[in-house]
Amino acid sequence: MQRAIGIGLLVLLGTAARAAPDDLDELLHLLGERHHGHVDFVEQHFLALLTRPVESSGELIYDAPDRLEKRTLEPRPESLMLEGDVLSIRRGRHRHVLDLKAYPQILPIIESIRATLTGDRDALERTFRVEYAGNLDRWTLLLVPRESRIAAAVTQVRIDGSREHLRDVEIRERDGDRSLMTLRDHSGP
Amino acid sequence: MNARRTGVIAVWLTCLALAALIVGRARYITDLSAFLPESPTPMQRLLVDQLREGPASRVILIALEHGDATIRARISVAMAHRLRLDREFSGIENGEPVTAERDREFLFRHRYLLSEAVTAQRFSAAGLRGAIEETIAGLASPEGLMLKALVPRDPTGEMLQIIDQMSQVAQPRIRDGVWVSADGRRTLLIAQTAAAGSDTDAQELALDAIRRAFTAANRETAAAAAAAAPEPRRVQMNLSGPAVFAVAARATIQHAAVRLSIASSVLVAALLLVVYRSPRVLILGLLPVATGAMAGIAAVALGFGAVHGVTLGFGITLIGESVDYSIYFFTQSAACTSNGAAQRPWQRQRWPIVRLGMLASVCGFASLLPSGFPGLAQLGAYSIAGLLAAAAVTRFVLPELTPGGIEIRDITPWGLRLEGLIYPVRGMSAAALWSAAIATAGMAALVLYHQRDALWDRELSSLSPIPLSDQRYDALLRSDLGQATALDLVVVSGPSLESVLRGAERAARALEPLIDEKVIGGFDNPASYLPSLAAQEARRESLPERSVLRENLAKATAGLALRSGQLTPFLDDVESARRSALITPQDLRGTSLAAGFGALILHQRDRWNALLPLHAPVAAAPAAAAPDIDHARVRQALAGAGSIGAQLIDLKVESDALYMGYLHEAIRLSLAGLAAIVALLWVALRSPARATRVMAPLVLAVLCVAAVLSLCGRQLTILHLVGMLLIVAVGSNYALFFDATRHERGHDAALTLASLSIANLCTVTGFGLLSLSRVPVLEDLGMTVAPGALLALVFAAALTPRRTTVAGGPAQNRA
User: Which end of chain B, N or C, is less surrounded by CB atoms within 10 Å?
Assistant: First the structure.
């Protein structure tokens, strides 16, 4: 009986801990206020194929309303630029332009970050089922792709942050591989 | 007399029947080739053939505009689906990844033959290690991630290498899964027809198929469109490209030729009916014109083998002049007879003048015969034969058909009224008139000198029967599609496909450093779709045996995050690649690569050409225009690659230079024609002074027309030049008549003036109609000759000295 009450309490506590939708609006509003962002990232990819993770690092630059650039500096310079639905990849002297929608493997990886930075709840909820947890000072967004085509590649994206800052982005793929991106305020020029 | 009449008429009818037979059996060409020059050098022939037959000539650009973007995307998909089933088309591209799966499969299967990175070194322990390290690093990026599943089979990343090789070309934007313009306002498709671009009938069928597909797709999406917006704006389809132009030009030319010929015939006939007041005379009067037209077409068919449709459009030029002969005959013979001359008075008094005028015209047109443009040469032949026939019919047949003379309205009163109009001018002293003429000529010359840099249109496209607005729209769609406008290209020529592919590979190696040096932005290369057999063989040779590869791989992966144990599929694939057959053009079938390859390879008779279109270097700032390619650097790089038969051609410069060559040729020929006319007049009139008097009004008229056209911002083309030649040809008749009848007075002078004015009115009417044509070549001609002929008459009337003014002015005659 006590145990049951304990579980009940836990459930209650859990419900209480889960923030109301209003808080998600507040967070997205806060994020939407920012028109420009520039952070450094370190990303680790854990792949079943490899005996140890691949690490890469670089910068993320965001400009409202919908421009996001992921500039990888290590181990191999590469630029990934998302504008609207058009993704341009620049590596050495090669440049590829892709329609984001045609690449379900890439879409959630980059759209999750952009839609969050934009603070556009409609855009976010169009692609993902969104779960919000925590409070403004320490929040977590759990994004699950709605479209089966996308869900076939990526099962979920988890973004942790504090107020208008994104801290960690974890992406889990269907095949068990995952990547973890840690963001820090931009240092240097 | 009766026997003579029968004989003359029989000869005429026999000739007419023969001509009709030839005309009926003649072959007619209605494509654009009348104004594509016959080319003397192989490089120019390549250029012309490419314009006419090349793969680029088979491309139809389709743009969907207006309406809702998502509806446009659905129409694009539905149209493409329908057209892909149609045998008229060898390819339909709209950005959908239809062939992507097949392409990927093809590229992956043949990756060890296609990848430029495949060398023996790459499969050594050190080479493998470098390549695998690169692949592992690539897994950190989303793009590498997409190829993750391929790593066990392709650890050296040949697939990515091939994708990089092929994607030198900028692709259009994609929205809702299909191509759109950069501003998103147009949805775009490219259709490639199975038939050659010069097959205008097949192109027309293809265009119809596209229109049907659009209508059907529009219907299918109508419900969705209505749901998307309560009052959806209709989606519109616009087509562009060489096939569209060819079909439209054919229709326009046929239209113009037929409609304008009919319109000017009707107008001239109405005019003559008013003058003659006799349908019988009208019909008799049109006989020389009809015979001339028939003879002209027959001469062209005999001389050239085929008749260009546009030549028929020029037929109006013939109506303009040959109708004059019968006008002179009818309006003047009555007067000649009443003057009391003996038998056949007109033939004695006036025919020599008409004959000289006709010969002057023939001299002018003869100068067109050697022209490099088939259209102009045919115009020359057509006019010469037509004028000779029309004049002969007027001189020999008309008198036999009207043995009892003819009854027409007396046109002398009109002449008197006209005399009254020009009386004030006639009253002026010769010195004053000539001073005015010289001053006018000087001013016109000054204008032309001032405009000398902008005087001539230097572009081949100015002769194109395609309206400028359509040419601009085409350029717009091409830039939307990021299709290389292919203005700069490296051409590698050789006797076989293999030889030009090898040449293309060597040229590519020479051009690659220029990308890093930002001289060029990139280039397309047929050898990246299908390498030469030599290159493929070398790559296949460089693949090691399984046991060697396994050993190298073990060494290479020591200490790496990728275990060699996972790479058995790689060993299998390399082993099967070592035994695989080399790729041939047939293997490309069913992939989108076939179209890409086909577009870059030209096969003409026993020559093969590989085309490597160059892309301009990327602009420094996004908004700035792309900088031009430094041709000297490219030529230098190609020269460094040795003699591979590679040449850089700038299509625009090349084709415009070609056109300038023909313009200069036309100027030379026209001047020669002018000189011939002057020489003819000099000899015939036996007096330099009289020849000068005859020529002066004509030169003045030409100068004035050229100056006014130039002041109106018109740049002169070859056709304007031909028009000026026609002014001299037609105007020489007027000047000769005024000169020969300068001693006439009163009634006779009035009659001459009246008959010349009627002839002039017919000419101005015919060419005036031509200037309304939508075919630029016809328009240019019309707007030059119509005002020029009028001015020639006025100047000739004013400048011919008269001795009649003292004896009795027109004022008295009018009383």
Answer: C
